[in-house]
Amino acid sequence: MFVVCVTIFVNPKFIQPFIVATLDNAANTRHEPGNLRFDVLQGEDDPARFTLYEVYKDKTDFAAHQTTAHYSRWKDAVPEWVVQPRTNTKNQALFFGDGIVP
User: What is the pLDDT of residues 39-96, one digit of tens each?
Assistant: First the structure.
């Protein structure tokens, strides 16, 4: 499994349009055959901080996600709303769902 965690800081005046665009991307991503999970998290202590937690069967599924229309739509919309470049970490899952990943 391939896990991507993205942190994004949004200009507070653009939080609502960012949420709408991100939920569109997340909902459509969940229909991709290689996607296992896409969570959208908003900071409790900082509502302008968002974390996207994305799980794919493997790296090729993540690469395929980045070619979709919904991802392109999101990627084109959000740059004007963020206050600093987004950061991400790419990870291999060791324990996911019900247990240890083989």
Answer: 999 999 999 999 999 999 999 999 999 999 999 999 999 999 999 999 999 999 999 8
What tokens does 84 get? 């600093």
Backbone phi, psi, residue 10, to 5°: -110, 140
Q: Which pTM value belongs to this model?
A: 0.93
**CATH number of 2-90, picked from 2.60.40.1180, 3.30.70.3450, 3.30.70.100, 3.20.20.140:** 3.30.70.100
Gap between the terminal Cα atoms of the chain: 9
